[in-house]
Amino acid sequence: MSGNITFTIIKPFAVSNGHVGPILNKIHTAGFKISAMRMLWLTKGEAKIFYAVHKDRPFYMDLVEFMTSGPIVVAVLKKENAVEDFRKLIGSTDPEKADEGTIRKEFAESMRANAVHGSDSDKNANFEASFFFSGLQRF
Ligand code: ATP
Ligand code: MG
User: Fold this and answer.
1) CA 127 to CA 139: how far, in whole Å?
2) By Cβ atoms counted within 10 A, which residue in 39, 43, 63, 125 is the most buried?
3) What is the CATH number of the domain that holds 38?
């Protein structure tokens, strides 16, 4: 059983193409509450730290470039079994493989510009949420 928070990013392109509202609507309809949210533009240094788990992967610098190409929206989401349920809601990393009805199926453009991020474990959800927000215990 996983914990009750997860962390998401609405990535560049999804933001610049006007998909923030429709994506938040899907998140809300799926039963998640927004505990914290803000819009920001990552620096290269911040993106490198945030994605440090992928530093040895061939797509690392490409990912850092993309994630710093425009503003993003970051949010902490609350729901029972949040990590697992949110991964189901967003769908496969590769939008061509994402199931019908998932956020990535509807809004992703490619493997890189795949519309949203979702934490893959409780540990990472906590790290990612506290990377962007302080004082979360108050929510
Ligand atoms: P996220 O962490 O964004 O929720 P994920 O957990 O489904 O996505 P990861 O393996 O953690 O996938 O990869 C992180 C991100 O790196 C992906 O969301 C995608 O934007 C990018 N990425 C992954 N694989 C590739 C690839 N082969 N080519 C380009 N970009 C990739
Ligand atoms: Mg991941």
Assistant:
1) 16
2) 125
3) 3.30.70.141
61-108, pLDDT tens digit by residue?
A: 999 999 999 999 999 999 999 999 999 999 999 999 999 999 999 999
Provide the pLDDT for residue 110. 97
Q: How many domains does the chain have?
A: 1
Confirm whether 19 is a catalytic residue. Answer: no
Domain containing residue 80:
5-42+71-132
**What average pLDDT score do residues 110-119 get?**
97
CA of 117 from ligand 2 middle (Å) equals 7
137, pLDDT greater than 90: no
Q: How many angstroms separate the alpha carbon of residue 97 from the centre of ligand 1? A: 13
pTM given for the model: 0.95
Nearest CA to ligand 1 atom 22: 112
